[in-house]
């Protein structure tokens, strides 16, 4: 039997607001437990929520980026359940009237083809706190620093048919939210996590199979692995004559497998109802237009511009536009050196190789865009050779000096282009190598091309690599052929 | 001093007839001698009060005293007070000291008022008799065998017995007006959104509203001026200018159109209460007002709608009392489930549990549409009834409660207790303001006249009540209880 996989994703994006969604407490990551939770976040008796307008603006920008409808009215509701890290006994969320309506996202697969994934809706909600199970001698500690952090939950339609498509979808969302600057997209810190709904069905069948929901998967790689495991598990179950039960599962990254958590039958009745402490959010078209005007260029627009205006190849444009940090770095290099193609080559070549080797993000690059642009300039104006440029890059990477010029100066890497000086060195080499000169002159024209390499090497050595190799080459040819 | 109104005491302080310390000391002494029997206070903060009184005296000497400087007040124990117990009349919060002050508490302090203590109340403001308090029932100073009304019964009794000249209460379904009526004082429920709810422990968020209980409408005006206004911490508080209510008290009643809702004078209304209310309305006619009958056709749906909406919100608002972060926690829980179950079983009283269960049921899947959504539709109809009535008349008048204060322990059945709020509950559903003013007696127990006005027409409401108090002396009557103390 041929099987088809059906995948839908709920992606939780932590919004990059300075303060929480319903209080003034800071959202900064990594503080001491319970130091960033005010009375409102702690659910103290008598406290009331006040909606953070920035969270609304960010959600609207996301909606606009995925071509979604922005309803005029949205509503906050309470989702009621008991959990120790849920301080109020309910989560303030949106269900019936979310802030972002149906939309779609373009995804790019590895073979360069694109397709569209529909978004069902996106809604705003507050995050819960964290239960700490270690260091409490069998008890549980509660850290409410994260409680009240604004989340945008983006719910897709079940439009994806493979783990690769699911990963491409999350990458597309990641690019959008980071471009918009509404999230740092840091999956390791939980800024982006997703619940993956997976089911399988015989190819050609219209009805969906029973799905399992894998909770809180927090890396691109884990999403791919969790789906792969789950698909295999479900197919095996069915082929063995059993059936998939609807349940919530957890992905174990140590073992690359999913495990049952609880069945949906035991699921809570969340008793949603409109939150009486918050007014409905009404957004008129002027507000939406204003947010639209504030939007930066998005990844797909950027890709097209790189291709059409800067003349980059489709591949280069795609890679450079894939993340906002990469695109900004590239554009800054381009602006300094004035040549898009050179900038693209260096960013994707030397820089990326170094970043990959040391496992660094582009934002952490020790070589700034300013420095790299300066270096490329010196190559383009023939101040240094391409070979010397690699040395200079490494020196910049190692932090030897602040600019390419300083390194060129300090290491004496400036190309000698003064014909007189080069001629002097050539004359010396010719004078010092009578045997080789004689051999050269006796040789056929066809063999001389190879033999000249020896003299070039000697001259370059004499100049400690600073002589312009093209000049050396042509002058040598002239002088050796003269006699 | 204990017979005087807030306005008179403010004048006395201003004139130097007595100091704030003397005034607060006198209040504390009365509480010490009388409250053992009355049980109107849960917490008295004598030391802090006297220190604040001294500060008010110094501020007055320095010429920078606030409008309420040195006046002793009490707060229903539902208002959060920093470092001072806020119990909400519940075992659940018996050991809870709030880390912050409610907005109204801040505003009163800025105006110079001296908080004497926190008054007794029905647990989490659920009740119409003040018999649902973890700290025991409050007695009605007019008749110690009667209830003071609920849930702001502690505040009403403390004012009626002259322990404090005024107090704050909250009104979710009549909890300021009904105890004011039962205790023979004046109580105002402002328009929903007029007074910040920040720091006022939530019972039913869309209905709760804080307001003053005092001897006179003029005193209520003085307090409302202080506590009203937009609060950035409460999104449902309304950004509207706060009028000078005191300055607007002297409006003439000539030409005022009074509507009597016929539904408020039907079956179940105690004849003595009806007589007193009709006499009061005659006083208004004699002062130049015109009276006509109006109808609020959906009145009979108010109690059922309220007992769907209020418990639904309460079931959610009270989820935070789970033993995890503050308040009561059961001993030695075996696991999380056990912690929740026993903490809540031990911490909450009967009536609170009843309403949580009702609310949980009406919000649950499969019942939500039939109960909660339907009740919200009814709520809109009830609000529309009032808006239609106010197209015809300026204010509505009727009894505050169908009977005078009943005996402690007399109401055994919860539903008959719920019917106590039959004339007050619709007002909360509609969000309009209402006031109860003393208007006579049924036997030895006071009767309240309720006056209702359109949204944000508190100035008119207070003026109408004030004019009545200029023409009558029901608000000057004092119970025999505590008379022997000077």
From TrEMBL, chain A:
Keyword Cell membrane among UniProt keywords: no
Chain's role: Allows the formation of correctly charged Asn-tRNA(Asn) or Gln-tRNA(Gln) through the transamidation of misacylated Asp-tRNA(Asn) or Glu-tRNA(Gln) in organisms which lack either or both of asparaginyl-tRNA or glutaminyl-tRNA synthetases. The reaction takes place in the presence of glutamine and ATP through an activated phospho-Asp-tRNA(Asn) or phospho-Glu-tRNA(Gln).
Keywords of the record: ATP-binding, Ligase, Nucleotide-binding, Protein biosynthesis
EC number: 6.3.5.-
Subunit field text: Heterotrimer of A, B and C subunits.
Cited InterPro entries: Asn/Gln-tRNA_amidoTrfase_suB/E, Asn/Gln-tRNA_Trfase_suB/E_cat, Asn/Gln_amidotransferase, Asn/Gln_tRNA_amidoTrase-B-like, GatB, GatB_C_1, GatB_Yqey_C_2, Gln-tRNA_amidoTrfase_suB_CS
Catalytic activity: L-aspartyl-tRNA(Asn) + L-glutamine + ATP + H2O = L-asparaginyl-tRNA(Asn) + L-glutamate + ADP + phosphate + 2 H(+); L-glutamyl-tRNA(Gln) + L-glutamine + ATP + H2O = L-glutaminyl-tRNA(Gln) + L-glutamate + ADP + phosphate + H(+)
Domain of life: Bacteria
Record field: transmembrane: none
Family recorded in the similarity comment: Belongs to the GatB/GatE family. GatB subfamily.
EC class of the enzyme, as a word: ligase
Biological source species: Chromohalobacter canadensis
UniProt domain Asn/Gln amidotransferase: residue ranges: 328-480
Protein name in the entry: Aspartyl/glutamyl-tRNA(Asn/Gln) amidotransferase subunit B
TrEMBL record, chain B:
Active-site residues from the entry: 76 (charge relay system), 151 (charge relay system), 175 (acyl-ester intermediate)
PROSITE patterns on file: AMIDASES
E.C. code: 6.3.5.7
UniProt enzyme class: ligase
Domain Amidase intervals: 22-462
Keyword Protein biosynthesis: yes
InterPro entries with a match to the protein in the record: Amidase, Amidase_CS, Amidase_dom, AS_sf, GatA
Reactions accelerated catalytically: L-glutamyl-tRNA(Gln) + L-glutamine + ATP + H2O = L-glutaminyl-tRNA(Gln) + L-glutamate + ADP + phosphate + H(+)
Keyword field: ATP-binding, Ligase, Nucleotide-binding, Protein biosynthesis
Role of this protein: Allows the formation of correctly charged Gln-tRNA(Gln) through the transamidation of misacylated Glu-tRNA(Gln) in organisms which lack glutaminyl-tRNA synthetase. The reaction takes place in the presence of glutamine and ATP through an activated gamma-phospho-Glu-tRNA(Gln).
UniProt cross-references to PANTHER family, sorted A to Z: GLUTAMYL-TRNA(GLN) AMIDOTRANSFERASE SUBUNIT A, TRANSAMIDASE
Subunit details: Heterotrimer of A, B and C subunits.
HAMAP family: GatA (MF_00120)
Family: Belongs to the amidase family. GatA subfamily.
Name of the protein in question: Glutamyl-tRNA(Gln) amidotransferase subunit A
Lineage of the species this protein comes from: Bacteria, Pseudomonadati, Pseudomonadota, Gammaproteobacteria, Oceanospirillales
Gene coding for it: gatA
């Amino acid at each position: 039997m041929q099987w088809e996989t059906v995948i839908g994703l709920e992606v939780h994006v932590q919004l990059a607001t300075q303060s929480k969604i319903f209080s003034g407490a800071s959202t900064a990551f990594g503080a001491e437990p319970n130091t960033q939770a005010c009375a409102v976040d702690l659910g103290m008796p008598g406290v009331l929520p006040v909606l953070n307008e920035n969270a609304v603006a960010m959600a609207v920008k996301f909606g606009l980026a995925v071509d979604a409808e922005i309803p005029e009215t949205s509503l906050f509701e309470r989702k009621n359940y008991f959990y120790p890290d849920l301080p109020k006994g309910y989560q303030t969320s949106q269900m019936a009237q979310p802030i972002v309506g149906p939309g779609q996202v373009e995804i790019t697969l590895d073979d360069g083809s694109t397709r569209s994934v529909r978004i069902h809706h996106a809604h705003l909600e507050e995050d819960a706190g964290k239960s700490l199970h270690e260091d409490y001698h069998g008890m549980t500690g509660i850290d409410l620093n994260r409680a009240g952090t604004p989340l945008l939950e983006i719910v897709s339609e079940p439009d994806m048919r493979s783990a690769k498509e699911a990963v491409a979808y999350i990458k597309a969302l990641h690019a959008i939210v980071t471009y918009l600057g509404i999230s740092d997209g840091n999956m390791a810190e939980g800024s982006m996590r997703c619940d993956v709904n997976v089911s399988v069905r015989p190819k050609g069948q219209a009805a969906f199979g029973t799905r399992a929901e894998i909770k809180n998967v927090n890396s691109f790689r884990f999403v791919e692995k969790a789906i792969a495991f789950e698909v295999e598990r479900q197919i095996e179950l069915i082929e063995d004559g059993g059936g998939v039960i609807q349940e919530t599962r957890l992905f174990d990254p140590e073992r690359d497998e999913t495990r049952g958590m609880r069945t949906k039958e035991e699921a809570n009745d969340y008793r949603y109802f409109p939150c009486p402490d918050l007014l409905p959010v009404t957004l008129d078209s002027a507000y939406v237009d204003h947010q639209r005007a504030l939007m930066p260029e998005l990844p797909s627009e950027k890709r097209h511009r790189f291709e059409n205006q800067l003349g980059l190849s489709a591949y280069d444009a795609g890679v450079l536009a894939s993340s906002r940090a990469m695109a900004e770095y590239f554009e800054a290099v381009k602006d300094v050196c004035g040549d898009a193609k050179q900038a693209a080559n260096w960013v994707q070549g030397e820089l990326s190789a170094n970043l990959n080797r040391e496992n660094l993000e582009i934002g952490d690059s020790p070589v700034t865009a300013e420095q790299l642009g300066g270096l490329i300039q010196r190559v383009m104006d023939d101040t240094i050779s391409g070979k010397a440029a690699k040395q200079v890059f490494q020196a910049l990477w190692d932090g030897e000096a602040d600019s390419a010029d300083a390194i060129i100066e300090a290491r004496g890497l400036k190309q000698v282009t003064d014909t007189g000086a080069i001629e002097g060195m050539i004359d010396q080499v010719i004078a010092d190598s009578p045997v080789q000169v004689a051999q050269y002159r006796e040789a056929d024209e066809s063999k001389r091309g190879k033999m000249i390499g020896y003299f070039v090497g000697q001259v370059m050595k004499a100049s400690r690599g600073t002589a312009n190799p093209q000049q050396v080459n042509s002058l040598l040819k002239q002088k050796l052929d003269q006699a | 001093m204990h017979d005087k109104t807030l306005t008179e005491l403010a004048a006395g302080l201003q004139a130097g007839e007595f100091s704030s310390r003397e005034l607060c000391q006198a209040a504390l002494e009365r509480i010490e001698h009388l409250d053992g029997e009355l049980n109107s206070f849960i917490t008295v903060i004598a030391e802090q009060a006297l220190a604040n009184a001294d500060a008010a005296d110094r501020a007055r000497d320095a010429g920078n005293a606030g409008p309420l400087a040195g006046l002793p007040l009490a707060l229903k124990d539902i208002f959060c007070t920093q470092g001072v117990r806020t119990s909400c009349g519940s075992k659940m919060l018996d050991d809870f000291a709030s880390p912050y002050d409610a907005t109204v508490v801040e505003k009163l302090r800025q105006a110079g008022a001296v908080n004497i203590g926190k008054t007794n109340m029905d647990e989490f403001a659920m009740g119409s008799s003040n018999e649902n308090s973890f700290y025991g029932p409050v007695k009605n100073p007019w008749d110690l065998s009667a209830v003071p009304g609920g849930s702001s019964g502690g505040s009403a009794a403390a004012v009626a017995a002259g322990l404090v000249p005024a107090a704050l209460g909250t009104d979710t379904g009549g909890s300021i007006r009904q105890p004011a009526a039962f205790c023979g004082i004046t109580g105002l429920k402002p328009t929903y959104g007029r007074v910040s709810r920040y720091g006022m422990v939530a019972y039913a968020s869309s209905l709760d509203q804080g307001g003053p209980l005092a001897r006179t409408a003029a005193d209520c005006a003085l307090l409302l001026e202080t506590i009203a206004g937009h609060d950035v911490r409460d999104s449902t508080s309304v950004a509207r200018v706060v009028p000078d209510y005191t300055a607007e008290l002297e409006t003439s009643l000539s030409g005022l159109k009074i509507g009597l809702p016929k539904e408020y004078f039907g079956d179940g209304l105690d004849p003595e209460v009806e007589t007193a209310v009709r006499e009061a309305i005659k006083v208004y006619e004699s002062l130049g007002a015109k009276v006509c009958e109006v109808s609020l056709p959906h009145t009979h749906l108010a109690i059922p709608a309220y007992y769907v909406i209020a418990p639904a919100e309460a079931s959610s608002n009270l989820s935070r009392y789970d033993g995890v972060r503050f308040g009561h926690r059961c001993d030695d829980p075996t696991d999380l489930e056990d912690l929740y179950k026993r903490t809540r079983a031990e911490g909450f009283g009967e009536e609170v549990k009843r309403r949580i269960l009702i609310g949980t049921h009406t919000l649950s899947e499969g019942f939500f549409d039939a109960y909660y959504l339907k009740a919200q539709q009814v709520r809109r109809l009830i609000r529309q009834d009032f808006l239609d009535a106010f197209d015809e008349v300026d204010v509505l008048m009727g009894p505050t409660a169908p009977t005078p204060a009943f005996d402690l322990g007399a109401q055994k059945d919860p539903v008959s207790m719920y019917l106590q709020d039959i004339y007050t509950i619709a007002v909360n559903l509609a969000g309009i303001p209402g006031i109860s003013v003393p208007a006579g007696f049924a036997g030895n127990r006071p009767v309240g006249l309720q006056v209702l006005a359109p949204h944000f027409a508190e100035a008119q409401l207070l003026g109408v009540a004030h004019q009545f108090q200029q023409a009558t002396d029901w608000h000057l009557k004092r119970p025999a209880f505590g008379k022997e103390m000077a």
